[in-house]
Amino acid sequence: MKIIEKDALSIAGLIKGREISALEVTRVFLERIDKVEKKVKAYINVAAELALSRAKEVDMELADGVEAGVFGGVPIAVKDVLTTRGFPTTCGSKMLEGFVPVYDATVVERIGRAGTVMLGKANMDEFAMGSSTENSYFGPTMNPWDLERVPGGSSGGSAAAVAAGEAPWALGSDTGGSIRQPAALCGIVGLKPTYGLVSRYGLVAFASSLDQVGPMTRTVRDCAALLGVIAGYDPMDSTSIPGELPDYVGALTGEVKGLKAGVVRELSSEGIDTGVRERFGETVSLLEKLGVACEEVSLPSFAHGLSAYYIIAPAEASSNLARFDGVRYGYRAPGESEDVWEMYDRTRAEGFGGEVKRRIMLGTYALSAGYYDAYYAQAQKIRTLIVRDFGRAWDEYDVLVSPTSPSTAFKLGEKVDDPLTMYLSDICTIPVNLAGIPALSLPCGLSDGLPVGFQVMGPPLEEPKVLNVAYALEQAIGFDARPEL
Amino acid sequence: MEYETIIGLEIHAELSTESKMFCGCSASFGGGPNTKTCPVCLGHPGSLPVTNMKAIEYTMMLALALNCEITPRSVFHRKNYFYPDMPKNFQISQYDIPLSTDGHLDADMNDYVRKVGITRVHIEEDTGKSIHIGESGRIHGAEYSLEDFNRAGIPLAEIVTEPDIRSAEEARAFMQLLRATLEYLGISDCKMEEGSLRCDANISVAVDGKLGTKVEIKNMNSFRSLFRALSYEEERQRFALEQGGGLIQETRHWDDAEGKTHPLRSKEEAFDYRYFPEPDLVPIEPDPEWVDRLRENLPELPQARFHRFMEQFGLARDIASMLTGEKALADYFERAVETGQGPEELAKWIAGDLSAMLREAVVPIQHCPVAPRGLGELVALVNQKVISGKMAKEVLREAFETGKGPQRIVDEKGLSQIADAHELEVVVDEVIAENPGAADDMRTGKEQALKFMMGQVMKKTRGKANPEVASRLLKQKLIGRE
Ligand SMILES: [Zn+2]
After folding, report:
1. What residues flank ion ligand 1 with Cβ within 5 A?
2. Which residue has the higher pLDDT, B277 or B409?
3. Do B46 and A327 touch (CB under 8 A)?
4. What is the pTM of this model?
5. ipTM value > 0.90
6. Does the domain made of B421-478 have the CATH classification 3.90.180.10?
């Protein structure tokens, strides 16, 4: 197997065993990027020089017998929504074109301490708003399985990079499905951790009460390992959960006999494409064969999840994105403005793309005097109901399952002009964010040559259980298809 | 028709914590522009706020001092509006669930007490400072603006009163008491001129008990301008009502130089703040034990001290009020009392000559060159008749200017009085011999003559003669009685 096809833990083992140097590994991936990036466009900025010098450092540390971090020399792609000190962070927006942060996001610092080598910043929908990566100011990313199709979004660059062998693993962020949906569409593993498990410090906010950073990997084992690196309390994030971390990799026993799984009716029947439904059904049968009792469960509040999400997320976004005003950093409309208010108007009209402006307007409206109770307050009530429905489900079931996305990868341009249809792409993933629970997407086969994702949801902080169920399934499914590029 | 003025105040006090409300930057005053900033208080992408618990503690101390109830679980909200001195274009504040509610503060008005209800005390962050370059000096019509974010994110306590205040005098007295309370608690610099204590007012005039139109007044930057602005506005509204004219609900800006209020342009006030709960912060749930401990450890507050000064030291109401209005002044007085001299005499010296000298030299009492012990020494010198009261004033000024102790000044300058009758008798005899005319006048009972003769004695002794002894000697010798 070529290096670019290997999972991250195997590469870490090779480097530790001195079978290959960190520098060679980095070169191999940079060459791969050179070769396929024109077709895939997974990165906004490739950090070639930085990566090479970091890899040399790791090699020197290894030569000195110093432990160069748990994953010393393993390359990684980072979604361009995470701040990187001294390296551009754009959030896929003209507003932040060329913006260089003065500090590292906590997760970036943690992967650095673990010895990983950042290959570059991955493409994304502008400010993480979108489900296809077509909303990037820097142009869309193509799905490595079919270059005429989207990789999903908003972490489409991260997903495509991993699928195309342009990075062994990546960091993404998930507000309504932005890790899991592209993972499903690109045939990789993606985990949205429990809200508060991973620090949001340095994650440029879309919707603060929903955002989480998470791993995007080739295998469940890599996913557990990367989670172990980035998870844990951070005093810089007030919503961060204190406490000891479990051994996520150690939890992968593959032993799932006796567990109970609920198949969420509201997320797995209506509006789900036939091919996806078929693969999903087969995977549920496989789960039963592994000794997991599966039965259908109805969680009625989920029917309103999408509506609640499209009030809460834009409301928070309208406030979070107010800071991009041309005063202190980022884009400022060139030429003279009559006054500061005109400068704001022009800067924001020119600096933000259509989808971002749509959501800012939606959110501003939902929070306006006289509308707050009808929209924002109602949406919060639905959110409470969804939390309650999940809570009741955990009394009965160890995990809940559903398809990750109602369809496989769709064509570029197919939905981009129809926001409502596009929003439906996140119908299966949104309730998880509203409830703050962990959920993972696992590739469970192909439909018409395109990957299908299987979603495993668990109670808060039960990542070990979610990962273990996914691990058992992964072994049973034996998904080993790869896109040809 | 009967008019009644109705005033409510909204006060902002910057808290003197070491660091800012939501980041580790220094909250101290001064420093070059934008030197006390970081990604958090500059609103850089991805940065997050973390609550400074010291600021919560200070605000709770204030709330407890104002007899408020502490909310068991209060919530931060975002107040959204665009302004260049606000890095995030929203201010983290509190809205419908503030840190504390339902208190009161009672202002002493000499012949009555005005009880002012406190609606709420909450915590929020301050904004940066804008300097608008251009003719208008305001953001409208500015050529460009300069921004200093050193102040952005400094913790602010907001105090909102009920509309219980009935006059500009009461408003000023209330603000002075509130300022003293903040100062006694040691939680704010309380400098209105530097903007660490700010006050806006809502004022209306009720006619025959019927509520009037509420007008908000901004930009009152001193106790004096608060008083003047409210007096002006009261007069303006009454006049309009007397003329049968209407008033509109609006925000008006106090122009201190002109002595008038002007309506603010509507664009500056027409904000829909779109409040919603701040998702980056968790609710404030103070441990009840913590609250109890703070309540128990509250220092003596200005009102309690005011009453104690009257009872314990027998001070008059106005002097007690003046001394306790500033913590350091009251502390100075109590330290002076420890010297064993009479509290009333000490209080008179502090409230009179000493305060005048401090004002004149623009020196705060904390840095007064005359130590409390020195003042006690001065009073003792007078009481022991070593120096006269008149001479004491000069000694005090000398002490104030040189920092030397009064005793030392008296010794060095040989200022102690000649109270020795034998020594003085020689001088008195000389004066009688040299001024036979005046001596005769005195013998015939002319009052004026005594004053002249005393003046001659003082001249010969360079003012050191004890006036009582000298006068007794003169009378003995010329009238035959004392
Ligand atoms: Zn700061």
Report:
1. B 23, 25, 38, 40-41
2. B277
3. no
4. 0.90
5. yes
6. no
